[in-house]
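Justification of resources, computational component.

The compute hours requested in this renewal are based largely on the per-chain cost of generating structure records like the one below. Each record pairs the submitted sequence with a full structure-token output. That output is archived, and it is also reused by downstream analysis tasks.
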Amino acid sequence: MTDSTEPQTTQGTDTARASELSVVAKFIRATELDTRMLGMIGALLLIWILFDIFSGGLFLTPRNLWNLSVQTASVAVMATGMVLVIVTRNIDLSVGSILGFVGMIMAVTQAELLPVYLGFGFDNPLTWIIALLVGIVVGAAIGGLHGYIIAYLGVPAFIVTLGGLLVWRGAAWWVTSGRTVAPMDSTFRLMGGGPAGSIGEIASWIVGLIVCVALVAMIFNSRRQRKRFQFPLRPVWAEVFLGTLGCFLVLGAVLIANIYYWPIGIIRKQIKAGLLEGVETEIFIGHGVAIPVLIAICVAIVMTFLATRTRFGRYVFALGGNPEATDLAGINTRWVTMKIFIIMGVLCAIAAAISTARLNAATNAQGTLDELLTIAAAVIGGTSLAGGVGTIAGAMIGALVMQSLQSGMVLMGLDTPLQNIVVGIVLVIAVWLDSVYRRAQH
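The structure output for this chain reads:
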């Protein structure tokens, strides 16, 4: 009696499990969610929960999450460009050094050159604009130089950018003979975040609602285009789910940013200066979304459009997928490669502006090891080192994962050498998982 019942019970359990798996598979197929992206988000949530437990509840606070978003911005900006570099089977080891050198150039421009040669002080509205433009031009020139040597002189990207890592780190020291340059222009500092470098509660809600409307419009437009070209349509419930989930995440992020209030010390200074009235302990002003976070999001949107909606983007992925076929198709692969490194240089300049503004200074150590974080962010985000595969959104999530690891380890009081060990291990594991994933796909 017992022997005849056990096989039936086992068979029933297997059937139930198969049914559950089929439901999950049908849900993923209907919503067209990227399973690899879901895995990254799941890993990110697990990291957050574990660090919150080990830090005694300090990690998942509005203050830490807001600071985490600001700290992620500069690496996230560079990671969007690193996706294109790695997709074409290249690498850029110099991004951290370029950030440090360009940051020093921008600092010297606004703090020393403009006041001496043009008489521009920190009160001049053109100071921050000129400094930023100078940085972007210098970053583009460095990227163009790297790209030319790689594409037209045939030197491997690994060697060129490894040399760039040393050259631009030394050049940053040479510009000021090792001096730290500070402070920065008050308007320039807004790109670094802080109470003044945030858009406030009301503006944050407005931006959040605009993003939600844009998400819904994108879903409707995608459905309309599918109907037009007679492509398979997602079920209506799946469209509603995706729109609702997207809006929930956006508005939830805005809420967290708004409930991180100004520190009491800043409130006290504002009251003394006559800018606020009332009792300091009864005034609550939310930071709102930080400007560097908005910059990173705007860069991600532009880079996504560039990678997925333009001829240049198609050439980039074609070059990474099959360089020989792309060359035989008549595509100027050398010029495409050079443009990729020019874009990378511009993104390094934008990241340098964010980093320098946040520190309110340019130092010789600025950007150290950022190249490893940037490469790790791209790889963790699903960019294959074999080329031809990668997403900008994945790189942004990868940057958040890497910064979450660092932030969590700092809250736990781990020493810097141990933090570097963990980052190195995570990078190796990410590359290993990428190779496993590619083998499974084939």
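Residues 218 and 378 are 25 Å apart (CA to CA). The chain has a mean pLDDT of 90.
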